[in-house]
Amino acid sequence: EIVMTQSPATLSVSPGERATLFCRASQSVGSNLAWYQQKAGQPPRLLISGASTRATGIPARFSGSGSETEFTLTISSLQSEDFAVYYCQQYYDWPPWTFGHGTQVEIK
Amino acid sequence: QVQLQESGPGLVKPSQTLSLTCTVSGGSVTSGGYYGSWIRQHPGKGLEWIGNIYYSGTTFYNPSLKSRVTISVDTSKNQFSLKLTSVTAADTAMYYCARSPPCTTACQYYFDYWGQGTLVTVSS
Prior knowledge:
The complex is a heterodimer of chains A (108) and B (124).
Chain A: E1 4-7, E2 10-13, E3 19-25, E4 33-38, E5 45-49, E6 53-54, E7 62-67, E8 70-75, E9 85-90, E10 98-99, E11 103-107
Parallel strand pairs in A: 2-11
Antiparallel strand pairs in A: 1-3, 3-8, 4-5, 4-9, 5-6, 7-8, 9-10, 9-11
Chain B: E1 3-7, E2 11-12, E3 18-25, E4 35-41, E5 47-54, E6 59-61, E7 69-74, E8 79-84, E9 93-99, E10 113-114, E11 118-122
Parallel strand pairs in B: 2-11
Antiparallel strand pairs in B: 1-3, 3-8, 4-5, 4-9, 5-6, 7-8, 9-10, 9-11
């Protein structure tokens, strides 16, 4: 099973600032990496697939990069609605498809 | 617009079977060829993929739950279902159904549509 490790666990950022979230895979997953945003009381929402392809309707301030074992989600200028928990997920080696434990982005 | 909706009991007794159904609207489970998954989230925790099913009936399960899980599909009702046997308090979680995008030249197993989730509590 591929283990996904996200860092940091919590990220404190001021509105308007850039946020950078990291996800590391225990073995190569190529570009088979997705990012999700989850707000309290809501299901996860797909942000990024293929490590860098934004899902339909996702603002351009969200960008993904990386490959193999190291991935990054960048939010260029945090808006109030962006404070949430973010998860990465690998879909290269299965079953199971695995998620990271999440990064909570909170208001500084 | 594809929508998924979970349904089923919110309270299950220990040792009994948890049964949930996911109803898909805005698209047929048979058209496009995609996998429907069950994913759970323990209170305050991360996401755990339970298993998935293709409209043809092909299934994949998380090895950690495989001995207790059955996922089935009812194409006539546009639904897929989860059964988890011999539940314990450790199975208390929010259960989501989700869809992976339609398979084209290959299948991509991320999740582009999610249901709102249903909280299942295991307690006597």
